[in-house]
Amino acid sequence: MEFIFYQSNPNVEEDEYEDTSSGWRPIRYRLPPRSIMPYAWDYPAAKSKSLVLNCNGKERHIRLAEIGNLIPMRVPSNNNPNGQSIVDLNIVAEGPTQTLVLSNYKPSKSIYRQQKGQTSQASVATGFEVKVENSDVTFKAQLRLGGLGISLINQNMK
Fold this sequence. Notes:
The chain is mainly beta. The protein contains 1 helix and 9 strands, in the order ββββββββαβ. The longest helix has 6 residues. The radius of gyration is 25 Å and the shape is elongated.
C-alpha cells in the first residue's frame, strides 16, 4: 500500500486551530510499497515538528520524538471497500537520526492487541490496547553445587 506524507503546518502549535488564510501548502512525498526514503524536515525551525501520514484517505499525525512502538494505524483497503489493513508504526533511533518503520501488523509480535472490550477513551478511539504481560514464572533454573568444597586458609596457613 502506498503512503503520502508531509510535515504538518509549522505556523500552528499543537493546541491551536489551523488558520487556512496563512497560505501554507504542504510539500507532499509519495512512499511506494517496500521502499526506503530519507527525509529531512521541510521547515526545520518549526516549534512543533510532526509528520502527517496519509494512506487511502486516512490521516495520522506522528511526532518522531516519540521513540518506540506507536499504536497501530488502521487504513482502508484499496482492494476491498469494506475491508481494512493494519499497519504497525515504530520509531527507531539510529545515531542522530530517527527512523519511522512501517510494517504489517502482526499480533504475535506487536505490544498492542486489538481491544475486546471498551475500557478507556484512548483504546475506544484507536481500537488497540497494550498487551498485559503475564508475570507467572515460565522458566525456572536450579543450580546444584554437590561435591564442591571451600577451604579457608589464613596467613599462618591454619
